[in-house]
Design brief:
The complex is a heterodimer of chains A (76) and B (164). By secondary structure, chain A is mostly helical. Chain A is built from five helices and no strands. Chain B is elongated, with a radius of gyration of 19 Å. The chains are: A mainly alpha (76), B mainly alpha (164).
Chain lengths: 76, 164
């Protein structure tokens, strides 16, 4: 069943261009995605998200300084 | 802040954090669905790989998928945080606070993504065929800073409403 699915989806149409397609275009797409810049491109696409998560963490936990001050206040 | 009667400490922080994360995720989906897929004015790497061949369109489609995977993770984490927040007895549950935080998160997404992807890394621009254009500045000013201000105003109203 799986082999029929794979054959049907990835191996039949000569014009198929998906990254898994066994066609010339498919190979070019794969080569264009997994090239020497793959890591750098992935880091660039992901770049906004750690910053956004950092802002959310600060909203949730507060500024590191203010947390320390709060703990000190509680100790006193 | 004290609540009436029970004199117990309450906080809005977990709800605001969850709403912000949901706004970031859903704002990312709006960008991806409307600008990348429906209007097709840009794609993730369209400034680096012009959409002038089926190969480049496919490569852009792959990186659009990676971007959507990240926005999905933000949304899923936001749902989890919201679930945890509403289970806490010390968290004030307020629709205004949640909506305000979501709009704030949407604006934050537009601002950070706009600055990094459009202006610093030049991965793409709002209307790719124009390069850096007025639309990039509108995206930052209205979609970014504007939504952040609207979100903060609603959060302020939510704070007053829950304090009453």
């Amino acid at each position: 069943m799986l082999s029929i699915f794979v054959w049907t989806v990835f191996d039949t149409a000569a014009v198929s261009a998906c990254p898994l397609c066994k066609t010339e275009t498919g190979k070019e797409v794969r080569a264009g995605i997994v090239d020497e810049h793959f890591g750098r491109t992935l880091a660039a696409v992901a770049a906004p998200f750690p910053i956004l998560l950092g802002v959310v963490a600060m909203i949730h936990f507060g500024w590191p300084m203010s947390r320390r001050d709060r703990i000190r206040e509680e100790d006193e | 802040m004290m609540t009436t009667g029970a004199a117990r400490e309450t906080t809005r922080r977990p709800l605001i954090a969850a709403g912000t994360l949901l706004g970031i995720g859903l704002g990312g989906f709006v960008d991806g669905i409307v600008l990348h897929q429906l209007l097709q004015v840009h794609n993730m790497l369209s400034a680096r790989r012009a959409k002038d061949s089926i190969v480049n369109i496919e490569i852009n489609m792959f990186w659009d998928g990676v971007f959507h995977a990240f926005t999905w993770m933000m949304t899923a984490a936001g749902v989890l945080m919201l679930w945890r927040a509403v289970q806490r007895n010390d968290v004030r549950r307020s629709g205004r606070t949640l909506i305000g935080a979501m709009i704030f998160g949407w604006g934050l997404f537009n601002l950070v993504e706009g600055v990094i992807d459009h202006h610093v890394l030049h991965l793409h621009h709002v209307v790719e065929r124009l390069g850096v254009s007025i639309f990039d500045w509108i995206f930052l000013g209205v979609g970014g800073a504007g939504f952040i201000v609207i979100g903060i105003v609603i959060l302020g109203v939510g704070a007053r409403a829950t304090a009453d």
